Amino acid sequence: MRLLLLAPPGAGKGTQGGRLAAWSGAAHIAAGDLLRAQARAGGPLGREIAAHQARGDLVPDQIVLDVLTPAVTEAAGRGGYILDGFPRTLPQATAAAELAARLGVTLEAAVHLYAPEAVLTRRLLDRARQSGRADDTADVIGHRLRVFADTTGPLVPYYAGRGILIAVDADQPPDTVAADIQAGLSALSLPRSPRPTPAE
Ligand code: ADP
Asked: pTM to 2 decimals?
């Protein structure tokens, strides 16, 4: 299975990404986690990533591609990938599509999780008490939601145009969201089972 989750902060892409990975056997690749790990590793690159993340700004495309490409390439060679938080800009989406075409492993579905901004803000503020993340403060949360709307929002029509978009209402309990995603995948005839070997 090869799919991506297109979802604003607080929509539950981490939760649904983990479930989809467990269910399908594909690798769950969370861009924010990989970038945070790189930030913790320090050095000039780590410090640059940490500064962007703390402000709630997107990390520059080239850095994201350098960090994400090895993980996506490796997963593509095995059971596939569930991309959580990547791509997040049109240039990232174009670069990812070129990489996938080169590897012969194109994307099968893009799952768009949507919810009203008030719901997303409330969830993020609830999570902020436990997360300890530098970007989980009221100001930065508002900025992250605006960045998503402006920069990642245009990916929704991009994937719809490719005929692989599944839009799911994320303002529902996690089991219901998961069931709606499954229904959307079935409508696209996914997952595709391996071709049976013809009998002799
Ligand atoms: P959330 O979706 O709640 O913002 P993530 O962990 O997915 O949480 O992302 C946290 C931060 O990591 C983003 O605000 C951004 O700084 C950085 N980030 C994650 N994915 C990308 C990406 N694909 N491109 C650029 N920056 C990214």
From this structure: 0.93
